[in-house]
Write the structure tokens for this entry.
Amino acid sequence: MYNSTRSSRQSLGSNTPSGSRRHSLLSADGNLQLDNTYTYASTGGTLNGDGLSQWRRTYIASEVGDADGVNSTSLALPDETRFTTCMAISEDQPLLAVGSGSYETNMFFVQSLDDQLDVKASFASKFPIYSLGFKSNLLMAGTDRNTSVLYKVDRARLLGFPPENAIDDGDGGGDDGPLVRCIGTFKNKAAKSIDIAAPGNHVPTRRVSCVEFAPAFNAASSPGEGGKQGANSGSSWPPPSVGANSEMFLACVGGVVNIWDAAHSQHALRMEKVSNQPLTRASWNPQAPANLIAASGVDGVINILDLRRRGRAVAWRTALPALGGIDAADEGWAINDIAWSPFVPYWLATASESGVVRVWDMRYAASDGAAVASLRHPTNHGTIQSVAWSTAHVEMLATGASDRSWRLHALRTSSEGSSSDAATIVAERRSADDIGSVVSVHGKGNTFYTLSSCGDLYAHRVASSALRHTATYRMDGNETAKRAETAVHARDFKAASENVLELVERLKEQKLDSANSEIIKTLCDLFKAKPRLTHSSWALPPPAVALMSSGSAIADTMDSSAAGSTPGVTTADKNEMSDAAQQDFTNDLKYLGYGLPPGFPLETTASRQPALWQALERLNMMNLRIKLAAMVEMADEESGKKIKGSPVGSDGRPLWKNIADREKQIIQYVQAEPTLFDAKLLRSIVKLVLPHDCIAGLSLGLGVCQAYLRHERRQKQQQKEQSSMAIACTSLDGLVHVLLFPTVFDTDSNTTPAAAEAGTAAREMLTPDVQEVRQRIAECLATCPEAVFEMVRLEISIQKIVMRSGEQAKVAEDIVQAMKDHAQTVETLVRGSHAGMALFQIHPAYPATTTLSASAVRLYLNSLVPMRAYDEYLVNTQWWRVAAARVATDGGHVVGTDYGWLSSFSLARIVNRQAATLVVPRFRRQIDVVLSTIRKEPLSLEPRLYRDTLLKVARVNLMMRCEKPLEFNVPGSSNSSGSKDGSSSNEAVVSSMVTTSISAKTMVDAFDEIGNAFLMLLEALTRHSSHRDAFKRAASEAQPLYEALAALVRSERDRGDPRRAGRALKEFEQMTEAHKTNVLAVSKYLRKLEHYAKSSSGGAASGQDQPSNETQQQQMPMQQDQAQQQQQQQQQQQQPHEQFEQH
């Protein structure tokens, strides 16, 4: 069935075993050096076989190699009849299939590598092949007997791939199976055949002139789906019988287009008679969902079929007009080939027998309309046999002609519209015979394959040097940018990357003014692939409407015989529509022809070229910097105009949403290049987001801060600098101020100067301005930036808790727990810093001091109140107590290094007022209730209330550093601010002063009295029963208090020990005499409590025996009497317990 040929078959005119010819008969000066022996004259005017073969070898050798920016390779196929007819290429593998009209060996498979063409195998099909279609591992061949034959190709074995790299073609034939296997035969139908054709008509043929697989489609699409194209189609396509994995294809016989499902060969899905004359070519629109087909033939008419239309599928048609001035009889010339643009779904190119290539804009062309561009080379003296669009440039297309020429054209437009000379020849080569097929290669840039009718296969790779002169420029004033434009147009991304990096580094040193910003924007447009144009973005024009606009609706109806003028359309209307078409085509060509085409795989290219990836990243950084600055400027302008609402960008979306959507990109680029994004700009963009989405703004700010920190760490590791990496982070003081606002340093707007002065007899209240506040934040950043950034993370956690719905008690518990976890994290960070906690004034045992956010502090303290954690509230707020400042050894006043440094700011007024008016009275009432209860009935109070009260009193006694911890004299909540005329008065504020106190002696006495009562309760529990369970219960009640007090004493001793506290905390944390006394008192109580906490063994440890069964029976009445007594005691203790719970 087939003959496998070696890839090393020697080519004509080659001295190497390779099948490729890349040498050239060019002299040193570039002139052709042809031997006169191989001219026609040498044969006496008669062409013999040997002379013609020698001439062909010499001519082919002269037209291959590297010349004029085109690298060409040729291969002579082993076709003895020299009657090659068609060619198809696999889109995802370097494999070509070539068909021949021979009855012998008529199918060839060629491997197309970068620098050579090798025949991998040749086969003999039953019938001659006149058309081919290749998709994945399926190959469709059109024969001369109305038949299309479907083959399955084992591409892996053909290309010689190893088993581990084999292509998953789903063949399943194994290593011993056939390389090419026939899996289906499809019998196409045509118009009725007649032996004698009418005058002016072609003789009917049974050749399958064209086969082509449909593009990918969605088999589950609903009827009429497809946007504008399917607005009035009214039917479902593809049919429900076509599965998701099915492959559809078309086949043309005569003037009929047959649509098949490759999985069913019995009946065609659809048959459409397009013309009475034979069709030469039909092609699916690659952008549409397998519903639009362009077909043309020898009658010179272009037909557009919409398979979703009911009845006849022809939705649009036209005839080629005369070339006006070239040949009056040109109208009606046959069309040999048509090709849809791979980038613009409404551009269609046609190749005519007249030697002209026309480009049609399907949005405007009516039944008697004109093309938007016409190309005809002055030296072309043959017909255009084939046309193919470039897969790398929107404006380029290649042609193959009967005069043996292959040309690559670049479309150009003028202000007067399109004309035949409005194009540039980019590259040109000639073959030894007429060129019947041209195909372009996806993924290989500007690479084209041509096939001549005599079996010569060529590969033309257009080099960058040939493309440079066709580039368009938008930055003529900057030579570096202009070189980048040239390189991108030539797809020389290495050179383009070098120019971009050079330009970006230069612009970084300069100010980003409007001119430089415009250059960056243009470069970004240059390197950015345009968005893909979908089938739903345009529509075919209805013929009844003369004046069309882009994106109009599809024609509802169309007379199938409409080939002449449209009724009701005047010449002026046609001219106006033609002008609109030319203008839109010019605009599209300018926009799409600059830079990269729609859907260009730049990311894939950049993944293979690190320099290109780096250049793109730098451009994106610069562009983002420009966009953010423009957003801030726009917001400032609207703020100055006092416009209500959120500032809106040019796209209609709020600016803050655009910024929030770019959060990850901003953080990534700040970490890579922090010097490009100054702290002021970052602060401004965060301020735009915070009022609208607090969590998003905080997350963005935290990410920026961490990016700065990571960059500094990386720089320090690379450069091994001795300086602190935190110095650069101090520039973020303004950003941190915005994130944590209001901070503990900020002045409360509700605090009047008179109230501040009246409540600060011992210390002057500070009212720092913004710069002073940020200076203090900068000092904190210089000490330990990680701890400051952790405060921002705490702010995010608290905001999430507050915004989460739930019970108030649960919210308060979550906030308190978040603060405690944060305090532990900050303790680890600060202890590891080079400065220590004393300079930072952070005390992890007191969570309220571990953040600079006044909001977080107030939420934490307010959450303690409903939890009745009064001790924790008072212990934490002691740092805001208005007390006399310590004095340094030199007699100077030291602010910020003594225990009361926070009392210098306005937050202290709010905290102390709440403590004096709410927390201290409740705490005192709780202690009084417990004392009054135990004085009456010490055994009536529940153990948990004993433990709770004792621990609170102990915490206050041990952890308060103030000389008078619970004595307050602060302004009340009265709003008396002076006389009726509105003037402030210090006397009016002083009259509302609130005085509340609990003396230190009262707290000590309360601990002793409540502690002794708890010991009595434990003793009573052990004596009520002689068995072991009584001691276990006493231990279970005493153990929690014992462990909590022991941990408290141990913590305070460690904090007061200079050897453990460190030099930075030595002076600050050393115990006073009163403090030492309280620690000793709690320690003594622990020794008493230890007897019960560790007596779980009960009577066995005391030498008491377990009672026998008889003794237990005798004690049962006694136990019943004791149960009655306990019930009476519970009733007696119910009243004081309820009273305590109320307070």
Observations:
- The longest helix spans residues 1109-1142.
- The chain has a mean pLDDT of 75.
- The chain has 31 helices and 32 strands.
- The CA atoms of residues 138 and 152 lie 5 Å apart.
